[in-house]
């Protein structure tokens, strides 16, 4: 795959390459702390004020209507509102279901981010209430003008499912109510128009809007509502005219309201980088265009997900939050769902995450810091939440994802300007390979073997050039002789003897690939030599060879000069040769397939404090399975991939010094061999198993694919 697919736009937007390059060109040396009052500082302050105006323009208002306060993020903005809001009550802080209109109230939606719900721990309201949007509107309409102030914090768009709350339904004549809008998720992909001035406060983070910078947010305050934020207690540098250290009562707060709220030096360097973010909307692609394009991608993904069904007719996807008649005004680019097995059972969201990782897809699972939405949609009762999270000890990010067969969270995919339709295609391929087409008969057949376990296929590799670089594939055809077109090409020296990494580590610098017509393209790791193209149907002079005591026939390709330029160890006589076999047989050494266990690879990587992918590449396997436990793979007798594809063990793979070769650089590190010896406690240095098809599969059109279920049958009971 050429790139990871990023489907977590609701978590953070990705900055465009254009923006990254523009930010790199920003001259930070011409800036200075605005509090310093030097010429450079005054210039910096003037530019900061212009950025404030660009922010207001983005929300279709002016500095006559709203002020912009810079914070460290949306969470900090909400905290500032909670600390400063004057409820004019008695600070009773009682959680209620029925509101007394004679007492002050802090209200929020059940569908709220944790940061918003967290405000209830510091507000000075008499009553705290969690309710739905329609309930909130009824409460406000029934409220009488009184001597208290009330604050309703409203989610602009659910970070859980993308539902957009219709802010136009909020009563314009609010009496004693003030509205705060959590726009953190909304502004990432939707234009928020504040021209009707219904919102008193709006919070958000700029990394959600531009993908950069983190640690910078905004609090928009309607000027006519500034007076109610008068309970601020802490005043940092830049917020006061005078603070006498010798007298507790001698403090004079700045009359400039915005400056009185911005504690300490604002993040002026990051703020001035926002200029580039807004420039992108004017010079590269308008925000309206981005919003429309992302919406079309989201709808395509939604239609794809809802169309996925098993052969039995059972739907794969159970979706949350999307209402009938949805449109760009009522729904954002977020899709929340769980998967169902063919028998209707839920798939744990961690299983989905792990399968997505196999296909290099970044998505998010869990409750997304929005437990209220989880409870509404899954659903979960208050008692169940207390049992699982409170008494049961479930933690955020752990592996517990099902409770008595019911989901404790879900899967979320969310989109942004960086996504394309190809991303949706890969998501669909992952879901089809790992779930829709995952052979349910395998699960039923599992019960036939007392000493067996269901495992996952996590990696597939094919090596077009013997001892050359690997190609990682999502799915691949398998034949009796091995992976289709595996080891199709080999290098021989001037004596017609096969060359391998044992004596020529530089072979790993050969990086093959296939073009769309099945031709093999050969490049070097440094991209310094011309590409060699080997026609799939190439004929030519043949030569008889012996490969691992087997007679083979090959077509001489040559390219001696290319090899000598790649590395001097090849000399001038080494050449490529292509198999001339008509039975799909390549230049494999010991067996058709080499299978290893990723759990065993991890143990060695941890032992050496090395990267898992580096160690994995050294073992040069065809099939990588996840047994969950290390070093139990040696005891298997069979692997059942499907009804037609069953492998049986030939032997253990006895390792040689080739595992010492770094597959990227060609350098040797003998610590690998020593580590394997130590872990094996001096026993045979075996790692992985050689396998072959139990029955012929040449006429079965058989494929293996990443994520599929596999039954491992063991010689003995070792699973407990």
TrEMBL record:
It comes from Rhabditophanes sp. KR3021. This is MOSC domain-containing protein.
